[in-house]
Amino acid sequence: MQQPGNFVTSDVAGEPIVVLRDKDHTLRAFYNVCPHRAGRLARDKGSRMSLQCVYHGWTFDLNGKLMQTPYFIDVENFDPDKFNLIPLRVDTWGPYAFVNLDEDAAPLAAWWGDDFDRIRGIRWDEWRLVDEREYIINVNWKVYMDNYAEGYHVATAHPGLAREMSLENLYVDTYRFYSTQRAIIKPPFIGNPNNRRYRNPREGDQICYHILWPNFMIDDYPDNLSTNIVKPLGPDKLLLKFDWWFPHDMSQSDMDSMIEFADQVQYEDIAICDEVQVNLQSRSYQRGRFSGRYENGVHHFQALVHRFVNSPNVVPEGYPVRVAEGR
Length: 327
Ligand code: FES
Ligand SMILES: [Fe+2]
Prior knowledge:
- The chain has helices at about 110-120, 140-150, 155, 160, 250-280, 295-310; strands spanning about 5-10, 15-20, 25-30, 45, 50, 60, 65-70, 85-95, 95-100, 125-135, 170-175, 180-185, 205-210, 215-220, 225-235, 235-245, 320-325.
- By secondary structure, the protein is α+β, with helices and mostly antiparallel strands.
- Helix 2 (about 140-150) crosses helix 5 (about 250-280) and helix 2 (about 140-150) runs antiparallel to helix 6.
- FE2/S2 (inorganic) cluster binds next to loops.
């Protein structure tokens, strides 16, 4: 997406969108909806110096201005200026573009960008994108987020991960619009070294899991990052998009072993979430309880859901304020 004319299509909350780089290298987003009769302007991704609707061929420049209306004859009082593309807010953080359908929303940095960068300091230029995977999971997106927001289940549900981190060392810090779970990696003399992924951790090496409200997560390991984006597809279905980032000099076999390790954890979580999705609807279940130490991240996430559902105009007052830090 660095060159003028590069574009990608997607959808946000059911709205088709196209994001592109214009001739001045500015990133722009538009509804991917032709103002003539609602045809698609672009499909998939690629590179084009204009957008031509796939239906009747109306053509727009990369600023969204209507340029050509082929064979559009016998039309009275037609003002092409009233048929330009409708722009959308677009912002970037690291290599990711974020589109906002709300013209009046606060900028991305006010939600979590600057504060997150200052505290967690992920340097995206130190990493390269190596693999991407998608998972379709038949659960409500909040069931998946609840699961992600706590490591309380690691000892029981993730034997491989439990060899690397322990509950004694796990803390959850909650901020206004994000939370971070962090655990120091167990030293090498704990556990059979042949079963360990991190056989020689450096002092202070830790595993972190960040949730950036509402649906952007980062698995932050000493030797790799993976972003997880949860996209709800319905009340009981979601698409999970995983991107794996590794240091520039990491060997293929080390990268493969990490992807395999994470994939295993992923399927363990999917199995749990599938069952919870069914069980939440059991007549026997009304509500549970949270561990204050280990499930404060779930509480934090659910409190944000509650807040936004009840008052859709939540705005960040100034910059994100730390709410609580694990001991
Ligand atoms: S719908 Fe786009 S040109 Fe007709
Ligand atoms: Fe898990």
